[in-house]
Structures are given as structure tokens and as C-alpha cells.
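Next up, sample data:
>
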Amino acid sequence: MAKGEYNRSAELETFVKVVEQGSFSAAARHLNLTPSSISKTITRLEQRLGARLFNRSTRSLELTSEGCTFYERGVRIIADLNEAEQLVCLQKSPTGRIRVNCNIPFGKKYILPLLPKFLEKYPDVTLDIELTDQVVNLLEERTDIAIRSGKLQDSSLISRMLGTSRMVVVASPEYLKHYGEPKCIEDYTNHNLLSFTFLRSVREWPFHIENKELTVSPNGNIKVSDGDSLRDLVLSGTGIGRLAYFQVKDDIESGKLKILMDSFTNRYTESIYAVYVGQGGILPLRIRAFVDFLVEQIDVV
């Protein structure tokens, strides 16, 4: 290799292995190299990037914030390279079982209708679909892919965005006729605000009024475990709810539900992701195929 050139893939693999093994010496044993060569590679990489990747001491080796970012992206790149080599060398088609966990409204609206098309394309794949609004631990529940909304809490998971949906506060015309329509944030104290039994990334309802964000706590007389049940209650005139627009779009267009204080809530959205475990190893073809298919096919309203 000529002077000034460098092997980026080798540097990246060395860096990732140091992070996963926890030390230069452990990474050296795993890669059958010397600790000094590992140290030189990391130093060269840091100099080239112009950023420190590790905070070093005699007893510990900790990632910097730049190192964390580089690691998270690095493991994805390595997985992509490994899979590309597999595809070229083996020309394998995705096979096996995929366990998918998804919240009920999004699963019914977007995931279930796509399954026949996916299985037609990949007939050797078997799908286990669990629809629940409870957030599961992927490793504990042996789940391959989870569909999650809002801010992601688990940074150890790899995520692919599927789309973004507005969050809307809605009520039925029957409810509004009986109890009146809230025109300002103070009016909500006189209404039955329905909510969920599980914790959400946004627990209170935000409203942007006069360049300020004000919130309302939904302390109604009913809490439910899933979005479909909340929608049913709102449709029945039981109270007011806050739901994703894609879930109630048809109800709004047909006049069964009305968006409340729309101009004060239209900036608030929730992103929807497919998340999966993929760091430190090759991502199975079946999982990559399913996630790629969802990204390609889903168009969230």
C-alpha cells in the first residue's frame, strides 16, 4: 500500500473489536495481533479522523461521544459488508422464521396488509407477528424486529425509520355536542381525557400556543392498553383522545371524529421505526429483507 493510503475497513474492524472486547490486549488476542499494533491502528485512525475515540487510562478504556457515534455506524457498515460478501459468494435467498412485534394500530393498518406480498417474494420465510402496544425487550422475548413509535430509549438497537405521523387530539361530534368543544387549553380541565395504561414517550398532551409549549395531563376515568381500544372509546363518545393521524384519518374524513385545536397541535409528530439487534455480528438475511421491504413499501400518512 502506497504511503498516505490506508485500509479503512481493517481500521474499522479493529476499532469495533476493541470496543467489543473492552481492551487493546483482548482485541489483539482475538485478531491474532500484538497490542502495540492495535494501539498504532487506533492512534492512526484517530489522527485521520481528527477526533479522539477513546478516553484511556491504565485501568479503563471508555468511548468518547465521537467514539460512540463511530461505533454505532461502524457495526452497521461491517454487517453490510459481511452480508454483501454472503450474497455474492452464496447467492442465498432469505429463509427461516422472523418474529415481529408491533403496536396494534400500525400493525393492522400497515404491516398485516403487506405480509402476502412479502411472502410471495420470499416463500421460504415464516412470520410470527405479535400485535401489542406494550414495549417488549427484544432479547428476552426472542423478538427479531419490533415496530416502535416516538423517541427510542434503547441505544443498543439498530433502527430504520418507516415514517412519521402527526399526533392529533380528537373527539366525536356526539361528545362535543353534549359537553362542548374546548377552545383553549384551560377548557380541557372540564373534559374526560382518555389515556393509556402503559408509559409513552410523551405522557402529557402538548399544545403550542403563543410561542410557548403548554401541556395537559390526561386524567380521565378510563385508561386502556392499546390504541385501537382508545379509538373505539373516542368514537363512542366516551371522551377525548390523542392518537396518531394515520389511525383516525378515515374517521376524520367521514366526520366521525373531529380534530380539536388543530393549529396548536399540528407541529407534534411521532416517528415510527423498525428496531432490531444487529451489533457485533452478521444481520440475518431474512431480517434485512423484511426491514428493507417495510422501508420500501410503507408510506405513513
